[in-house]
Fold each of these.
Amino acid sequence: MSSPRQPLRTALIGLSSSAVTSWAAGAHLPNLLTPAGKSKYAISALLNSSVDAAKAAIKVYDLPPSTKAYGSPEDLAKDPDIDVVICNTRVDKHYETILPSIRAGKDVYVEWPIASNLTHIDELVQAAKQSGSRVAVGLQGRWQPPLIKIREILHEQKLGKVLSVEVRAFGGTIGREILPSGLKYFADRKIGGNPITIGFAHLFDSVLSTVGDIDPGSVHTKLQLQRPDIRIRDPESGKIVETITSTVPDLLSLHGSLKKAPHTASAATLSLFFRRGGPFPGTPALTLSIALEKGEIRYVVPSGLALMSAKPDEPVTITIHNFDTDKTEDVPWEYTSEQKEVNDRAKGVLTCLYAFADGLDAATRNEEGERGWVSLEDAADRARLIESFLKRWEESGAQ
């Protein structure tokens, strides 16, 4: 008789009591505190900017008194009682905070983007190969319930093969030319976190995971910086405190061909348009249209690019138009029972976070564990492709 699995001893990086953004608190922590989450992960340590900051967060979030407080990535990496590290810092801190743990052979879950630049990403990939560390990257959009449903429809091929895919998306930030002071870095290309590498990238990855991967050699992109003068607003006073010049494009138009797959026709076309900021009033934030031989699928997210942005009175819908009957029908989808236990932010992360734990459990440590989460190597390939879009734009002098 096998012994019951033990929760993985887990360190959280970036669970701050004073952070401007609260992805760790809003999207990860709720999943770790459910009954299922507690059976998989045991919060054993926090790493923040200082030991005192970590202690403050332990108190604010009412974590067990036994939770260790760290202010140094190297000290955390040396702790033999930590199995998994989950990183939710700002992107320019990812590399320095997770590299020591990867080198120490610990397993790591890091949010997307992986790091600020390809040099750091490549170093993380090599370090993981050398140490045997497993690294998952938070491209959790691949497992959103409606996209899983669309994949099922495509793979059934009752409507034939995919002929073309069209995406129109607006978002990445709420404003078109205003940023809150805490997100000022979104206008700085060097930091690595911005509407293209976050908003567009999550969308792009989710679409490709649904309809099929793209042939990199077929891709043509047009990027534009429409609004270079960015106003910075103090969220407390609501006043504009400064104006800066952005180095990040706010529009990306992409065209290419999907790789041949059982559910796609030869040279099936992908067309994707992304613009920072909200859409024209009454226009959905995201529309994904998939033309097939015998019908068409339309996926609409009225508000925001992610399900966590959906409003109760603006449901996310999947609709099929069957050419043979010339009728349309709505396709139902729903969250899993576990997802229903947590808030909207946490819902998207839950599947990957739990699958990662299951794959790392000693009783199930094998390649099957990679199902349900994105490996570092896979995510690095996606990062290189997106970086090539930005690099060509910079080299063209089109800013």
Amino acid sequence: MRTPQSAFLIPFQVSMRGSSTQLLMLALVCLFSAFGAVGQKTKSQLEEEKKENLRKIAEAERILSETADEKKVTLGQLQALNQQINARENLIRSIGSEIRILDNEITDLRIVVNSLQNDLILLKEEYAAQIYSSYKANRGNSRLMFLFSAKNFNQLVQRLKYLEQYSEARKLQAEQIEEVTKELNDQRSKVEAKRAEQQTLLNQQVRESRKLARSKQKQSELVAQLTKKERQLRKEVEERKEANRRLNTLIAKIIEDEAKKSTTVSTAEAASAAELTRLFESKKNNLEWPVSGFIASKFGNQPHPVLKRITVVNHGVGIQTEKDSKVKAVFDGVVSEIWVLQGKNNVVVLRHGDYMTVYAKLKTVNVKKGQMIRSNDIIGEVYTDRDGVSELEFQLYKGASKLNPENWLAMK
């Protein structure tokens, strides 16, 4: 038979069960979420990627519009369109990653919501059990009668403690019900907000996918039109080879002359050159870009973008940019040479200790041979050809070794 004391103690003992269940479920959700996030990019990183890809898309669109204004089908148009397609594909991938992150977050939130719903049911059942147990144990008897029916003083004190415990238990249970109800409503609101955010991203992904499809269709049309100009393209390849040969001959002469000079320099000059070399090397992967734009022609042996089985040899990179863009020095140095070459226009060579940078296809030159240059100093303006293409040729050497500038320029 249940005593009056047990009627107050049992509800108090079970009142903490719902809270423990809730905390356990929340801990498990956090644990699973942490494991799922390992190796994934964060939402803030993906947002930055999206911004950068949108910037690249806009930049490529501006460059593309300049070449399109010439009413000609050119490789420059194709290169700008390819850049735009790559940036848009990266953008769509970033959006997809964000959508997957939101999927995981929504799943986690739903687990929390289900846990809170179960806890709320349990808390309400326990609260009802408290009321019923109290009524059943004290039916027909008031609390005063319960106290005054004590056989001695010690029993009276004990019954007072039981009543206090019972009162606290009911108060705690009511507070827990209120807190869990509030938390449940908050979590439901978060789920709705995440779903709305996800829908916005899905809409954006659909829009970008449609734009991508249109760009790829245009890309196919451009390639088809350029293929019809095979004879002209082959002629341009040969002209480019000859221009490269002339430039390489001059650069080889510079390297030979510098090697001879190195045997006669003073100790102070040698120390200064060594320090400049060290500083230049410390900027690997973080050199300033000589001009805004994108890499249209990569370093080394590259397949021709249109002609099959034709390889184009690039001793540097071609950075396609906007008309009249200013060309800047990538690092401190001295102007070693300035030339005017057929197929390369104006060429400026800067020396940075053991390193050398070459800037070709300049319309104008703002520096003189022997002039000391600081990083970001303007050395000239990019040349725009008859097809409306503005592309800087940028090369990098250490001694006689050609280096891939993409491995040195800052990531964009």
Amino acid sequence: MGTQLEICLQGNDAGVLRRAASAAVQEMERLSQMMSRFHTASVVNALHYASGLRPIPVPPELFSVLRMAKERARLSHGAFDPTVGAYKDWRFDGTFDRSPGSLQLAQQRLLVNADQLILDPLRQTAFLQKRGMRLDLGGIAKLPILQAGLKVIENMGVENAMLNGGGDVFVKGKLNQQPWRIGLRDPRQPAALLGQIALSDGIVAASGDYERFFFENGQRQHHILNPETGLPTRGPHGLALVAHHTSSLLRDINGLGTALMVAGSARARQMLAALPNVDAFIVHHDESLWLSEGMKHRLLKTAIQR
């Protein structure tokens, strides 16, 4: 999905570890090619080609992600929307450091509506109702892809694993008989850590305006777009979410980081209050720091730098 992948495994048989890592990478690459808008032959791009024309069959893994995307859009009242891919003129790869024009964004806004992503569970099809609609699953596909990689590793008998996909992390088991230590990047100083979390079974998901961006007229333009405007969010600088027990809480946390970045700090805290099993920190636009009660207790405070 356009991010770097890191896998760390521990066990007694180096051969098994190598095979498990290789099999996990193959599975995650298969799913990425299926779900990424950057792969021209992906199923997601097939949905784009068929938009406004006809439903097309989709594999069960993609259908599951699309269902989660619609559910996150509903729960967030549109703060998360998988159809923001319609804002297709943004570039964050260094090739074109200029914002799209207001007229372009206004026209594309008409194509952003998660309700017009139609899923048929009986036929296992998906349909983008308006011609020109496009998906961007970057905010919701990475965690299921990482989870699939972890499942491959577990099925091969490896009990201790950490998978990191661009700041989204799954862990199981231990490292050197101790819980994994996961560093949480400080959005105000991306090269530094805000702190660490000790996990033996959990998910860490980070979102922020510091990964893919450019400056225009002195203002940071970054890749997390507000579905209502097509413009980069102007709420939190960044945040991190921690869920304990990977199997049960993926749905609670998946897509939530993007939704919170769009919703803004005050609404984000309200949304998190309804999720007592999710720990979080938010660095607000004014660079002040907010910690949930769970994060206050779990964050290793000796590592806090600001």
